[in-house]
Design goal:
By secondary structure, the protein is mainly beta. The chain has one domain (about 30-190): Beta Barrel (Porin), CATH 2.40.160. It is about 10% helix and about 70% strand. The protein is built from 1 helix and 10 strands. It has one helix at about 1-20, and strands at about 35-50, 50-65, 70-85, 90-105, 110-130, 130-150, 155-165, 170, 175, 180-190. It has an 8-stranded antiparallel beta barrel. A two-stranded antiparallel sheet has the order 8-9. It is elongated, with a radius of gyration of 27 Å.
Length: about 190
């Protein structure tokens, strides 16, 4: 009988190991805030003395490298804003195209603080009345910062502040003086 009990002990141990494995289940991959990204945003622009305040939209894409808790990379972005210029007497469309550098710190697996800057061009299209339409381009630069939340590996939601500067430009017979603006923005980003 003792031989039968000893023979059954390995069987009971094997049955117990299948019900309570000692090996932990493999964790799902954590969001990383690195790789290719493409996102869109809406913004409110204010502070342009000559040009006025209004809402706009933009798109930004690029690549973020992973270095421990730090992420950094290059991007390109495009924004478009429709403004009422010259105290509402004219309509001005402002489009910016920039490339730049973005960096940040991952504070948890889902939260990321970021900042960066870029340089490029701003294109303005001015319509004063049905008979006048003019456009021109000028140097532009920006600095920005914000916070990003990543609820899923392929999606993040961000909110931030952007400071935009546009150089002086001439749209004959007008000269639009160089001006800077504050932009509050919110958007979503897809990660690949």
């Amino acid at each position: 009988m003792a031989t039968l009990v000893l023979a059954l002990l390995p069987l009971s141990a094997a049955a117990e190991s299948t019900t309570r494995p000692d090996v932990e289940a493999e964790e799902s991959p954590k969001p990383e805030f690195s790789g290719w990204f493409l996102g869109g945003s809406s913004h409110f622009i204010t502070g342009l003395e000559t040009w006025g305040d209004d809402f706009g939209a933009g798109i930004r894409g690029g690549y973020m490298f992973e270095r421990d808790m730090v992420r950094d990379g290059l991007f390109v972005d495009f924004t478009r804003t429709g403004l009422d210029a010259f105290q509402g007497r004219a309509e001005l469309k402002l489009i910016t195209a920039m490339s730049g550098y973005k960096a940040g710190i991952v504070v948890s697996e889902r939260w990321f603080f970021y900042g960066g800057g870029g340089i490029g061009a701003a294109w303005a299209d001015l319509r004063l009345d049905p008979d006048f339409n003019g456009s021109n381009a000028a140097l532009s630069w920006q600095v920005f910062g914000g916070i990003e939340f990543r609820p899923a590996k392929v999606l993040s939601i961000r909110a931030g502040y952007r400071h935009l500067w546009v150089d002086r430009m001439s749209i004959r017979p007008f000269t639009l003086e160089g001006d800077d603006a504050s932009m509050l923005e919110a958007g979503v980003t897809l990660w690949f």
